[in-house]
Structures are given as C-alpha cells and as structure tokens.
Amino acid sequence: xxxxxxxxxxxxxxxxxxxxxxxxxxxxxxxxxxxxxxxxxxxxxxxxxxxxxxxxxxxxxxxxxxxxxxxxxxxxxxxxxxxxxxxxxxxxxxxxxxxxxxxxxxxxxxxxxxxxxxxxxxxxxxxxxxxxxxxxxxxxxxxxxxxxxxxxxxxxxxxxxxxxxxxxxxxxxxxxxxxxxxxxxxxxxxxxxxxxxxxxxxxxxxxxxxxxxxxxxxxxxxxxxxxxxxxxxxxxxxxxxxxxxxxxxxxxxxxxxxxxxxxxxxxxxxxxxxxxxxxxxxxxxxxxxxxxxxxxxxxxxxxxxxxxxxx
Length: 311
Ligand SMILES: [Zn+2]
Prior knowledge:
Aminopeptidase, CATH 2.40.50.100, nine-stranded mixed sheet
C-alpha cells in the first residue's frame, strides 16, 4: 500500500527507535496533504490501534489527497513500555517540537518528524490517549493561532465530547506537535481517547471514526456517516500537581464535573501524618486523572479543562 519509507535520527545509528517507519498514500495532486501521527507516547495503544485499523480498512483508490502517516513515532518507548518519555534521554517527545537537529536524541527525533513529515502537510493530526497511569475522558485540543478556526473545525470533525482551545500564555505545556504545526501555519489538533495502557475497543473506535471524519471533512475521503454532535467547548487547561510526595487518592473520575473549590483528591505522606487536600481552582472537567497512587513532589495529578466557550 502506498510508499513506505524510514526516517532516520541523525547520529543515533543502532539505538532503538532511531529508525521510524512511515507511509505515504494517495496523491497531493488530488487534494490536501494530511499528516497522521500516533505513538508519540509509547504506551498510548488505543491511538496506535485506531490508526492501524484505519490503514487496514483504507481503500487507497478513494483518497482525494495525500496522507503522510507515522504509525508509531516513539519506538524506543513503545518497545521499552516506557510512559511519557523517551528512554534514551528521559525527555518527553511531545514537549520537544519542532525539534533541534543538534539536540539530544528526542530533540533530534522531533526535528526529523517535524521537518520530514509534519511541515510538508496542509493539516496535522496527532493521536494520543492517557498514558500508562492516566484515566482519560476523550477530548481534542487545539492551539490559539492564526489558523485556529481551521484547527477548531478539525477538532469538531474528530467528534469527541470535549474540544479545548489552548492559549500559549496560559498553557501548562509547550512543544507539542500540534502547537508547533499551528505555529507554522498548519491547522492541527491533538486527539485523546483511551488510557491506562489498555486496548479498549470503544476508544479504538473513537480514534478510527475520528480519523475518518476529519478526512471526510477535508474532502480527502467520501463521507459515509452522520456528522458528529458538537463538543463541549472549553478554553482553559489547568494541570493540578502535588506539593508533597506520597500516596495519591483521587476523589473524582475523568469526565466528572467539579465545582471550583471542591476537593478532588488527597495526597498523604508515606512517612508522616501530613495530608494534602487537592482542590479544583475553578469549575471544570477533569479530563485526565492520574490513576497510580505513587506521586512525587510536584507530581502531576490531573488535567482540569474549564472556561467559557471561545468566541
Ligand atoms: Zn500522549
């Protein structure tokens, strides 16, 4: 099917994950080019499987455009079953885009992914899930940018329950592939469904239908389904962290609605009777929640999406 190739991380010959397979399908002469990337985090299996299943079911002759596909971007973490980071240098690949050709392994990997694939696309979709220790309510996120209306349309087309617009100045993170793409003028989303290292069928299907809906919305594939319902639109993204290390006990689940000021969990010290109450700073929805009780000082506990609908 299509053309297969290998991206190579410079100066990393022999290291696991230094060669990244990719696929090119269809033709740019027929329509827009869309990059589809999964496996930026190595244990987010539902997103990888949604993309695999899409490719297995694809009739390439129906493509009215071109797909640039990276089935698993972070093979070192995949083979090592390593959550969040690339094992070679302990960096989070989704904080390193657009990358650095002269940086460490992960920064060079981000560079080759961005420069060889994402930059050549008209639209970019990065597929994720909660990682090995994260429960998650499905959502898409896009960045405030000059192409934000097109990104928002992608977010709605993907069809998940929540759509978050992220302002760079207020974002808890930087260097995501979708933020770097939007900065380069390429409409882009990060799509999240699934979590906890599980391969649950519902989340795989959400990604599969999301990919198909986005491509249909761009005219790259024929539409053969009802349009999705409009998502809940939010524009703030607050990550809650622990002040102390210890045992994390969440009091809410991913997808709950929590009022500002309410206790969303506690962290209790392993060595003293100190208990830290974690409170929601404002009304919102915990869209991912750390499920592992083990947290360190400044450990990530949950992501709370909030805010009024963007204009
Ligand atoms: Zn991820």
